[in-house]
Amino acid sequence: MTKPIQDIRERTFEFAVRIIKLCQYLDKKPGVSRTLSGQLLKAGTSIGANVEEAQAGLSRADFISKNAIALKEARECHFWLRLLIAAKIMPEKRLAELRDGADEIKRILGSIVVKAKTNRQ
């Protein structure tokens, strides 16, 4: 197992913990915050779960597929974070670091998928 893979596993785990804490906060607010919280929770915790599954992939294709799913979830999570900011449900100042973290995770996962596809050929 290479170091970047270990790093993304830990990074996505820590990211999921932060998402859970944010969603716990959002769940205490009435209305649309709860609905968005559910969407964010699913996407934000799914990233790390799929990265973990990729490590146990049955084949290179399975590894690529699971990481591609993690990438899609990271994109979705980034969307929900941007939406919370744009709709003024949460101040940008409070979510900027988390939003930027989601963006970094997207880039890392994109790189992993591209490299795995290139090495497959």
What can you see in these coordinates?
The chain is an all-alpha fold and 121 residues long. The protein has one domain (3-120): 23S rRNA-intervening sequence (de novo design (two linked rop proteins), Up-down Bundle), CATH 1.20.1440. Helix content is 87%, strand content 0%. It is built from four helices and no strands. Helix 1 packs antiparallel against helix 2 (32-55). The chain is elongated. The two termini are 20 Å apart. The mean pLDDT is 93.
Give a quick set of tags describing it:
elongated, mainly alpha, 121 residues, 0% strand, de novo design (two linked rop proteins), 4 helices
Q: Which helices and strands occur, and which strands form pairs?
A:
Blueprint (H helix, E strand, L loop, with lengths): L2 H25 L4 H24 L4 H27 L5 H29 L1
Helix pairs in contact: 1-2, 1-4, 2-3, 3-4
- What is the CATH topology descriptor? de novo design (two linked rop proteins)
SSE ordering: HHHH
Which descriptor suits the 3D outline? elongated
Q: Sheet bearing the most strands, described?
A: none
CATH superfamily: 23S rRNA-intervening sequence
Our count of domains comes out at 1
Mean pLDDT: 93
Mind telling me which CATH architecture this is? Answer: Up-down Bundle
Which regions have little confidence, pLDDT < 50, spanning 5+ residues? Answer: none
Percentage beta strand: under 5%
- Total strands: the figure is 0
Distance between the termini: 20 Å
Question: Helix segment count?
Answer: 4
Helix content: over 70%
Structural class: mainly alpha
CATH class: Mainly Alpha
